[in-house]
Amino acid sequence: HDAALAMLVAHFIAEGDRPAFYAAIRAQLSPGAPFVSAEISHDLDAPSFAPTLGTWKKVQTLMGATPESLDRLSVLLRETLAVLSPARTDTLLAEAGFTAPTTFYQAVMIRALHARA
Predict the structure, then answer these.
(1) How many secondary structure helices (H) and strands (E) does the chain include?
(2) How remote is the C-alpha of 34 from its chain's centroid?
(3) CB of 41 within 8 A of CB of 77?
(4) pLDDT tens figures, 66-113
(5) 66-83 burial, b if ≥16 CB within 10 A, otherwise e?
(6) How far apart are CA 69 and CA 73, in angstroms?
């Protein structure tokens, strides 16, 4: 294929399955073909996570989140979704055979990147 796009998908793929996910995409691409991905991505152990989570909660509130769902948001990010740090994602992409990814968009914890096969 000449390009691949994965919009808000990767954070639903368990970390242990993510290498195969990226490798399967890479295997379907022509050499040099672009891959564009957007996913929830943040280092959940970094000092910046607490203030970022606060901003994320404000965004979720504007989208209709309940107080109960906001209370569980950190657990959801850590235990239900497979939120990886940008560095970990970049490593997995490189291991799958992609060029070093470039972030071209960031909105709170949504990171969009492009790389080449």
Answers:
(1) 5, 4
(2) 17
(3) no
(4) 999 999 999 999 999 999 999 999 999 999 999 999 999 999 999 999
(5) eeeeeeeeeeebeeeebb
(6) 6
